């Protein structure tokens, strides 16, 4: 199995991979191979990776982290099948390889919802109808979170607004279009808006304008894939709100600022650990074709102890 990212060698997935595959009943010789590509890699680089994945024997598939949209844009013609969510989102986070045929999947809307439910109380959005979500970063992760909210089982338990921001207009436009279409299909009440920002101070202003009980998400990759934070140390998080740092490793300045908000504003703070674990387990099961029940998933998550 391949792992396509930016700094895959630093991921804890290498440590847990043997335990996960054993718990899923897979062969002992399963291996995880990291494929590093820089952010902004060329279309030809993306296409070559997918061609290699297709042509090399013994590779069951791949999990993709930081290149979901760019890889799909460059390589969509190389897939034999694209699932509905992947086509809707215009991204690929999971590839299965069967007999030389490649299938593109997008599991992150589902896994992000699993992870969010670990720290956002059930009924939170219905109980606080004016609360909003501010998603800093309009890449594959941010888009998937918006899709996950738009397609929740209970269409009324959603934030009043989902504002997604990024430095690139094209990424914002793509995310807003995809999430609005999901909202339209589902018929939920969430308003979807986009904004382009150019400096960390812009993020501070957007966070400071949120009403109480709102959620702020760092989906930019800053703090892991790149240095810095989408907000500064002067940021004022919403009273009794929530902050979600999607990174589980790295510098994570956003998480440090959120921890200060925990003490001063009653903020609920979560990092990306649960998202990391549930995402890997779900992708592994899909790539190797292993049925995964809710109880088995919970057991695997509980058995993955953070170092």
Structure description:
With 307 residues, the chain is of the alpha/beta class. It has two domains: 2-106 and 274-302, Rossmann fold (3-Layer(aba) Sandwich); 110-271, NAD(P)-binding Rossmann-like Domain (Rossmann fold). 41% of the residues lie in helices and 17% in strands. It has twelve helices and twelve strands. The strands form two sheets. Strands 2-1-3-5-6-4 form a six-stranded mixed beta sheet, with helices on both faces. Strands 9-8-7-10-11-12 form a six-stranded parallel beta sheet, sandwiched between helices. The longest helix has 18 residues, at 169-186. It starts with a strand and ends in a 5-residue tail after the last helix. The relative contact order is 0.13.
Average pLDDT confidence is: 93
Query: What amount of the residues lies in strands?
Result: 15-25%
Write out the strand line-up for the largest beta sheet, numbering strands in chain order.
2-1-3-5-6-4
CATH architecture of the largest domain: 3-Layer(aba) Sandwich
Order of helices and strands: EHEHEHEHEEHHEHEHEHEEHEHH
**Low-pLDDT residue intervals, each spanning 5 or more residues:** none
Q: How many structural domains can be distinguished in the coordinates? A: 2
Rg measurement, Å: 19 Å
Give the proportion of residues in helices.
40-55%
Number-wise, the strands total 12
CATH topology of the largest domain: Rossmann fold
User: What is the CA-CA span between the terminal residues?
Assistant: 24 Å
Q: What best-fitting shape do the alpha-carbon axes yield?
A: globular
Class of secondary structure makeup: alpha/beta
CATH homologous superfamily label of the largest domain: NAD(P)-binding Rossmann-like Domain
Name of the CATH class of the largest domain = Alpha Beta
């Amino acid at each position: 199995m391949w792992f396509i990212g930016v700094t895959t060698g630093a991921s804890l997935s290498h440590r847990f991979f043997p335990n996960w595959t054993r718990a899923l009943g897979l062969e002992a010789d399963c291996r995880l191979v990291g494929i590093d590509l820089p952010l902004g890699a060329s279309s030809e680089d993306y296409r070559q990776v997918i061609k290699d994945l297709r042509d090399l024997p013994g590779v069951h598939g791949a999990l993709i982290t930081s290149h979901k949209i760019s890889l799909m844009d460059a390589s969509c013609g190389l897939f034999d099948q694209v699932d509905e969510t992947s086509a809707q989102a215009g991204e690929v986070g999971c590839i299965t390889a069967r007999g030389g045929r490649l299938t593109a999947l997008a599991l992150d809307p589902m896994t992000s919802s699993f992870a969010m439910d670990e720290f956002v109380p059930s009924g939170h959005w219905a109980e606080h109808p004016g609360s909003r979500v501010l998603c800093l970063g309009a890449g594959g992760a941010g888009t998937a979170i918006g899709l996950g909210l738009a397609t929740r089982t209970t269409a009324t338990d959603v934030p009043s607004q989902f504002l997604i921001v990024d430095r690139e207009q094209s990424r914002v436009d793509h995310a807003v279009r995809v999430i609005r279409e999901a909202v339209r299909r589902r018929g939920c009440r969430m308003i979807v808006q986009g904004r382009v920002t150019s400096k960390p101070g812009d993020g501070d202003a957007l966070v400071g304008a949120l009403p109480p009980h709102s959620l702020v998400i760092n989906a930019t990759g800053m703090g892991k894939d790149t240095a810095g934070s989408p907000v500064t140390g002067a940021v004022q998080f919403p009273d009794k709100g929530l902050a979600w740092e999607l990174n589980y490793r790295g510098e994570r300045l956003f998480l440090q600022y959120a921890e200060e908000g925990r003490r001063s504003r009653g903020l609920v703070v979560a990092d990306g650990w649960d998202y990391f674990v549930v995402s890997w387990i779900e992708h592994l099961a899909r790539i190797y074709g292993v049925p995964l029940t809710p109880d088995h998933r919970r057991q695997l998550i509980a058995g993955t102890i953070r170092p």
